[in-house]
Amino acid sequence: MSSSKLTKTLLFGVCVASFSVLAAFASENAHVLLHQTVSSSAFVQGENVTVSVTATNAGLANARNVVVKAPQTRNEGKWTQVNEESLEQKMTNLDVGETKEMTYVYNVKDAGTYTVEPATIQYFASDTREVTKGESNVVKNVKVLTPMQNNARKALRVTGFLSLGALNTVEDWLKFSKWIAGTIALFLLNWFALKIKYGLQSLRRMAAVRGLEGDAKLE
Q1: Distances, alpha carbon 69 to alpha carbons 73, 121, 179, in Å
Q2: Cα separation of 119 and 68, whole Å?
Q3: Which one, of 111, 26, 113, 118, lies nearest residue 71 by Cα?
Q4: How far apart are CA 23 and CA 39, in angstroms?
């Protein structure tokens, strides 16, 4: 075997060995998944919103010195924490397959559509002192309604039930109102047409009667 081929073979062997070592090292690390959910997709102004954050170790090693942080206020201060859950949760270990859940309750001051910002996490994924950082998912389109909007939503639920699902949304009502308006307009147009028709017939009869009376006088 030539020296160039021998060198290439040795380099390939070193690369394969290095990749195997790195893969084995990475496969033995902890991998913590952080996920957050909201207790409902719609709330009423002044109500409390519950945000649940779960940390799950999906790796092959225990996570050490785990720290999960949630913001005290969300959405530029419009959501304020009202429960006593610590905003910074510290865990010495999070075993392989273990899940830890944290619950945060916020009071919503203003109506609107909000996005729940992510919580953050940091931990030691291996025996080294290297810190692994991450964050949870973002929950979008959380609606906070005014009391009037909430009453309208309840009314829509009732009408949706009574109409067998035909009138569930404001858009459905708009379409239905247009249909009603069109039907009423056609009814009125037909009514006016009939009134005009009957009026003309009455005028013809009166003219005919007058004509007969005139003929009788001439005789």
Answers
A1: 12, 6, 53
A2: 7
A3: 118
A4: 39
Q: Are 119 and 69 a contacting pair, CB within 8 Å?
A: yes
31-145, CATH topology level: Immunoglobulin-like (2.60.40)
In the chain, CATH 2.60.40.10 sits at 31-145
Short-list 179, 177, 159, 155, CA closest to 167: 159
- Report CA dihedral (133, 137, 138, 140) to the nearest 10 degrees: 180
**In angstroms, rounded to a whole number, what is the distance separating the alpha carbons of residues 110 and 84?**
22
For the beta carbon of residue 26, count every other beta carbon within 10 angstroms.
13
- Give SS3 for 98: coil
- Alpha-carbon span 55 to 123, nearest angstrom: 11
pTM over 0.70: no
> How do 120-124 and 131-135 pair as beta strands?
antiparallel
Interval 57-106: pLDDT, tens: 999 999 999 999 988 888 888 888 888 878 899 999 999 999 999 999 99
Q: CA-to-CA distance for 99 and 148, rounded, in angstroms?
A: 40
CB atoms closer than 10 angstroms to residue 32: 23
How many CA atoms does the CB half-sphere of 181 hold within 13 Å? 6
- The C-alpha atoms of residue 145 and residue 81 are separated, in whole angstroms, by 19
